[in-house]
Amino acid sequence: MHAFTALQLVDLCALLVCATTILARDPADRGNRAAAVILYCGAIWASCQLLWMTTDSPELALQLVRLSVAGWAPLGPLIARFMLDVTRSPAPVLRRVLPFLFAASAGVVVLDWGTSWVHTGVVREPWGWSYRFGPAYGLSFALTVASFVWALATATRAYRASRLESERSQGRWIAAGIMLLLCVGGVTDGLLPWIGHPVPQLATTSYAVMGVMFAWSLSRFGYSILSPGTFAAQITETMSDGLALLRLDGRIRSVNAGLVRMLGMPRSEVESRRIGEILSLPLLEPPVELEEVRAWLVGAGGQRIPVSVSTTLLRDGRGADSGLAVIVRDLREIEALQRRLVLGGRMAAVGQLAAGVAHEVNNPTAYVRSNMLLLRDYWGSAADLLEEGASDDKRRMFVDGAELIDESLEGIERITSIVQQIGRFTHADDGARENAELELILDSAQRMARPRLRDGIALVRTAGGVPPLECAPRELEQVFLNLVLNAADAIGERGTIRITTSLDVDRARVDVADDGRGIAPADLARVFDPFFTTKPVGEGTGLGLAICYEIVQRHGGEIEVSSELGRGTVFSVRLPFGPRT
Predict the structure, then answer these.
(1) Which of 247, 82, 45 is nearest to 178 (CA)?
(2) Could you read off the pLDDT of 403-412 as tens digits, one per residue?
């Protein structure tokens, strides 16, 4: 085998091995994909060159020379794309021009395959076949060189701005590989043949050396095309917690699927942003290692998500700081559980107090009521006895007195009703359990609520085919009656109450939604607190939702509320089908 042919074979093997190794380590990384595509293009070029150097047919050699244009024509735009992916540089002008560069390189391929404007023929040389260029070659050569220079200038600015010595060193190795290809390949395979001085083509050899330099530098400095590797990438992608890898300038290098889900943003929108834009915690200046520190994560639409943050410094192959790993744990469920525990403890304490108050109030209320009823009878008898001969002033006085007695009895009835509500709230009896149809329970609650709904309020039911559940029907009727009446109070004169039943995994779900005034965010966390009410004084006891919460909890279920001011409120009740375990 000719020595030059053997060199071309080594070049081809080196390009294929480097490209496949880089891509296999982390195929999801954009920088990895860009580097692999560049090296695979070099492999196309090298394979075509190996074949045309070993053929005796000038026609076949020319066809292979023209076929090789698919490997070298897009090289300039691909290098530019690779440098943008690796440095994460904004470079807005280059990013806008890049599609046109790719289109121009595609035009060169079409010209070479369809015309003689790029390669006109081949010439036999001692080392193999050389080629002659047509009038369009100068344009393609200028396009490739311009793309190389622009990409190198952009990368140089980005690496100079880096605070990491290891990143700057890696940048120098990558730039050296690209410069080697530009200088050696541009001279031996482009410039000298173009001016009529053909020499052995060493572009694919410099291409292979560039691939080895890519792989070595990225492995040596740990900066990303070879890192973190397929196995580690699979682990991070399956983590439920969010993970972000940062540069030391605060920009996000990469994120896992957990953080993408948490933020509710596409991965492309998260990467390259500064961590301070999405996390309310200073992690840099200087970089610090943290453990389970509370913070806010700012998600899509400005949503504030409570999180716990832990950080670890990253180091490259030489032990120098190279970035920061940030682990973000979503605390929304934990905080919701904490609120339920606090509410449960608060309700237990209030329940004990309320039981004692109800007992103490009940006895005096009973004899005051009894005395007022007797007084009303006496007052009526006295009014009858004095009716004849009484002056108008005296008659008016007796009428006013009777009205005062009636108003006092109404107040006593109100006190009795409140005491009974407190008694139900503090009574832990589960009630009689039976298999009951949820729709029939809602029918009963709707019938009881109908007389108290204003004419302008529409009640809409949507059934979801929920099977029977084991429950205390009378207690659940009370729950849904309270929710419907609260919705009616929130609506005012006109509006709609929607009751929807559905299956929620292994539970029955009932949503009671209204289009009323909504609940202020500051009040949402307290709506189930005993004696908390947003109604005017005298119109509510603040026990209705607390009783609903207690009943649903006794059934082993959950009740939640979501609301938006001016848009309405939704109460969601989830109930298990079997008995509470």
Answers:
(1) 82
(2) 888 888 888 8
Q: How far apart are CA 513 and CA 1, in angstroms?
A: 83
What is the Cα–Cα distance from 496 to 139, expressed in whole angstroms? 70
Sign of the torsion angle spanned by Cα atoms 206, 210, 216, 220: positive
- Phi and psi torsions of 220, nearest 5°: -65, -45
pLDDT in tens, 428-452: 454 678 888 999 999 888 887 887 7
DSSP 226: S
Q: Any residues with CB less than 8 A from the CB of 359 and at least 6 apart, and which?
A: none
Nearest C-alpha neighbor of 571 from the set 506, 532, 516, 493: 516
Beta bridge partner(s), residue 274: 251
Q: Collect all residues with Cβ–Cβ distance below 8 Å to 331 and sequence separation of at least 6.
A: 294, 306, 307, 308
Helices (H) and strands (E) counted in the chain, each on its own, are 19, 14
Q: Calculate helix-pair angle for 165-180, 75-87, nearest 10 degrees.
A: 180
Structure tokens at 520: 């202020």
Least confident of 171-175, 191-195, 215-219: 215-219
Residue 170 CA, distance from chain mean position: 33
Type of residue found at 406: D
HSE-CB at 437 with a 13 A cutoff on CA atoms is 7
DSSP percent split of the chain into helix, strand, coil, nearest 5? 60, 15, 25
Calpha distance 258→295 (Å, rounded): 17
Q: Which residues pair with 238 in a beta bridge?
A: none
The predicted structure's pLDDT at residue 230: 42
- CA atoms within 13 A of residue 21's CA, in its CB half-sphere: 14
Q: Is the predicted pLDDT of residue 220 greater than 70, yes or no?
A: no
Distance of CA 348 to the CA centre of its chain: 37
Q: CA-CA distance, 174 to 580, in Å (whole number)?
A: 64
Give dist(CA 363, CA 370) in Å, integer: 11
Name residue 439's amino acid: E
CA–CA gap between residue 483 and residue 280 (Å, rounded): 38
Per DSSP, the three-state class of 145 is helix
User: Where are the strands (E) in 343-464, listed by range?
Assistant: 434-436, 457-462
pLDDT of residue 331 exceeding 50:
yes
In a 3-state reduction of DSSP, which class is residue 407? helix
Q: Which region, left, alpha or beta, applies to residue 485 given φ > 0 means left and ψ of -120 to 50 means alpha?
A: alpha
Residue 489's nearest CA partner among 462, 465, 512 is: 512
Closest CA to 141 of 73, 41, 70: 73
**Could you tell me if 436 and 575 are in contact, meaning their C-beta atoms sit under 8 angstroms apart?**
no
Contact between 145 and 101 (Cβ < 8 Å):
no
d(CA 572, CA 507): 12
Alpha-carbon torsion, ordered 60, 66, 71, 73, to 10 deg: 170
Query: How far is residue 549's CA from residue 475's CA, in Å, rounded to a whole number?
Result: 11
- pLDDT value of residue 509: 93
pTM of whole model > 0.85? no
DSSP 3-state assignment of 272?
Answer: coil
Domains of the chain: 3-221 (1.20.1070.10), 230-330 (3.30.450.20), 347-426 (1.10.287), 434-576 (3.30.565.10)
